[in-house]
Amino acid sequence: MSPSFCYRLLVGFAAAISLQTAFAETPSDYLSSGGGHRLLSSDLPPGYVGAARQNVSRMCPGYLQPVAFIGPEGTQFSLAQSGAFLEPSENLQAGLLIGGVYRFQVSRIPGREGAELFPTVELIDRTFPPPGLATRHPIQIQLDEDDLIAALNGQMVTRVIYLEDPQTATPLEQTRLNSRPIDISEFQDALEVADRFGKPLAIVRIGSLAPPRQPELLTQFFFGYPIWAPIYAPETVTQR
């Protein structure tokens, strides 16, 4: 039996900084040909869209885009290193390569004791916050309970995270409490819809695939182990 699919969009998250600054002039013409035909879609295997973006962009090679993983209260996330997932955390933040595909672990899912998921996130663009503030305004990879339960029930959930066009964006700050995911039908391409609303930044795919038992398959499962860098929240200094 083939899996059913669920497509969702997550609107821009960066209204805490200037949307005009964050959006920048990085057109998404790589999504279509000169004749207006769509070349890329969210249904392509992980890595295809990010690679196409890298081929046409002028972004600095090796740039690590800050990303924050967010889920229902109590949910934990972990990235892999050398073929094994590190200690999970409820507040995981990391710098990820544009064009890279990262396998991450989701555990401690509310109401599903012992259940784990291993989604992928593919970075296809970056943000442009004010200098020195990149880690304060990461791309938020937010998964809600509906996403996780759907995946555990055998659905393939695809999320496209995008930054709203500053000319048409709702002038409201986006937080983990008021984010507005948009559900679309299986007949619509999530990447195309996100491109109409703003600038697509990342594609998250959540299925029921688990790590392989054979060690020789781990490199493929982890998409070649792209590099990443942890981001640690600064400690609060108490004044005495």
Q: Which structural traits does this protein have?
A:
alpha+beta, 8-stranded mixed β-sheet, 4-stranded mixed β-sheet, signal
pLDDT averaged residue by residue: 77
Give the helix level as a range of percent.
10-25%
Overall structural class, as computed from helix and strand content, comes to alpha+beta
How far the N terminus sits from the C terminus, by CA atoms, comes to 64 Å
Number of helical segments?
A: 5
Which stretches of 5+ consecutive residues score pLDDT under 50? 11-30, 32-37, 235-240
Q: Domain count, please report it.
A: 1
Coarse shape: globular
- Taken in chain order, the helices and strands follow as EHHEEEEEEEHEEHEHE
Q: How much of the residues is beta strand, in percent? A: 25-35%
**Main beta sheet: strand number and arrangement?**
8 strands, mixed
Number of strands: 12
Radius of gyration (CA) equals: 17 Å
Strand order of the largest sheet: 4-3-6-7-11-9-1-10
Could you characterize the architecture of this molecule?
The protein has 240 residues and is of the alpha+beta class. It has one domain. Helix content is 14%, strand content 28%. It has five helices and twelve strands. The strands form two sheets. Strands 4-3-6-7-11-9-1-10 form an eight-stranded mixed sheet. A hairpin with a 2-residue loop joins strand 3 and strand 4. The radius of gyration is 17 Å and the shape is globular. The C terminus is likely disordered.
Which secondary structure elements does this structure contain, and how are they paired or packed?
Blueprint (H helix, E strand, L loop, with lengths): L4 E6 L8 H5 L24 H9 L7 E7 L5 E6 L2 E2 L7 E5 L3 E7 L12 E4 L15 E4 L2 H8 L3 E9 L16 E4 L5 H8 E9 L11 H4 L6 E3 L10
Parallel strand pairs: 1-9, 2-8
Antiparallel strand pairs: 1-10, 2-5, 3-4, 3-6, 5-12, 6-7, 7-11, 9-11
